[in-house]
Amino acid sequence: MNYWAPYAWLPTGIVSRVRIWVTAEGLIGSVESGVDAADGDRRLPGVLLPGLANAHSHAFHRALRGRTHADGGSFWTWRTVMYEVAGKLDPDSYLALARAVYAEMALAGITSVGEFHYLHHDRDGKRYAEPNVMGEALRQAASDAGIRLTLLNTCYLTGGLTASGHTPLEGVQRRFGDGDAEAWALRVADLKPSTGMRVGAAIHSVRAVPRDQLGTVAAFTRMDAGEQLPLHVHLSEQPAENEACLAYYGLTPAALLEDSGVLSPQTSLIHATHLTGADITALNNSFACFCPTTERDLADGIGPARALADAGATITLGSDQHAVIDLFEEARGLEMHERLSSLNRGRFSPGELLTALTVDGQRSLGRPELGVLQAGAPADLIAVRLDSVRTAGSDPEQIALSAVGPDVDTVLVGGEVVVSEGRHRLGDVGRLLTQALETLLD
């Protein structure tokens, strides 16, 4: 099948009048620019981009949207409500909710997601008969929704960290824990990658994984032949985390991860909000994933994104708790937060924002073959309209600063059409979300 569009973002930049041949195997066979559409070509509107990579997701947090603002509160009161939702899910309700959430992502042009998954066990903390049944629900949900999944199976061992040390898991937190990192690794080892899913690892945070367990998780990600699984970690999202880590370990969270051998080119540090100058230097060879719509929703603060990028870190973007599922909004948030904190415009160029949304996000999820429109790459691409009420008049080069999710017209994943003319192949995604949420919240 040949697809033609007025514009496309290729490795050389934005080019006009582009034809992309997608093979029967779902690969990009060729890319031509400066050509007119031919008979039989499927014409797509606007500008073609590689599929977007959502580098940080908690699918079940979607149930919190529009439900946590009545009394203001804080990150910690929000977390209490989140735990209430976590206590209700079972494999069937998790599948239904995640399927709808991933379909919502596809509608917004997201073709790959990194799911930071720690809802492992039954409500009482006991393992299911199939220990990875909740992870398998996510695999099925992503397949049904037509997007690629990197399942970041999360090690979560303690309930928190104080100046006196780690506290035990309590209440719903018992669903998250495996006892120790070795037991976690044995369970995760039973998960096998598939066509649509890759397996990665995560350390929830230095609050949830003690120092003597960090190295075990890091070692698990190092495979034969020098290959390494992606490893993601929540880092310094709240000042309280830093204060507790300093009080107990005498180190910042970033310094603790560095000292424990966690940091590497395959490590993604999520949020990275409250960092020292030394922390920024320590992260110079890793990914830093910002989630601006979550960080402002939870009043987390504005992280040093430009400073990290200048130090050598690779910036990626995620929608985290899904207060909004719109990676264009995350990209704008990255730039606009920098403008507010620095009083300067143009902190990240439009090209840098697109790179964070695509190729770098995909690399952070262990998918270096994705994120680029070129011959031989899997045919994951999206068409973004340039004639909507939001994008009309926009330069194609600046589409990341004007488009929103509903401007995505068409989504292909592996050559298969998942979204066409703004409609998902599953039908009414709003209805799917409503049904899943009503079942869960009732």
Content of β-strand: 15-25%
Q: Provide the CATH architecture of the largest domain.
A: Alpha-Beta Barrel
Shape: globular
Please report the first level of CATH classification, the CATH class of the largest domain.
Alpha Beta
Number of domains: 2
Say which CATH homologous superfamily of the largest domain is assigned: Metal-dependent hydrolases
CATH topological fold name of the largest domain: TIM Barrel
Care to count the β-strands?
19
Specify the number of helices.
14
Q: What is the typical, i.e. mean, pLDDT? A: 96
- Fraction of helical residues: 25-40%
* Rg from Cα: 21 Å
Alpha carbon gap, first and last residue: 46 Å
User: What characterizes the major β-sheet?
Assistant: 9 strands, mixed
Compose a concise summary of this entry.
The chain has 14 helices and 19 strands. The chain has helices at residues 75-86, 91-107, 133-145, 181-189, 211-220, 239-249, 253-259, 277-282, 292-297, 305-311, 327-342, 350-357, 359-364, 429-441; strands spanning 2-10, 13-22, 28-33, 42-43, 47-50, 52-57, 110-117, 148-155, 160-162, 165-167, 197-203, 231-235, 267-271, 287-290, 314-317, 381-384, 408-413, 416-420, 423-424.
Please render the helix and strand layout as text.
Elements: E1 2-10, E2 13-22, E3 28-33, E4 42-43, E5 47-50, E6 52-57, H1 75-86, H2 91-107, E7 110-117, H3 133-145, E8 148-155, E9 160-162, E10 165-167, H4 181-189, E11 197-203, H5 211-220, E12 231-235, H6 239-249, H7 253-259, E13 267-271, H8 277-282, E14 287-290, H9 292-297, H10 305-311, E15 314-317, H11 327-342, H12 350-357, H13 359-364, E16 381-384, E17 408-413, E18 416-420, E19 423-424, H14 429-441
Parallel strand pairs: 1-4, 1-5, 6-7, 7-8, 8-11, 11-12, 12-13, 13-14, 14-15
Antiparallel strand pairs: 1-2, 2-3, 5-16, 9-10, 16-17, 17-18, 18-19
Helix pairs in contact: 2-3, 2-14, 4-5, 11-12
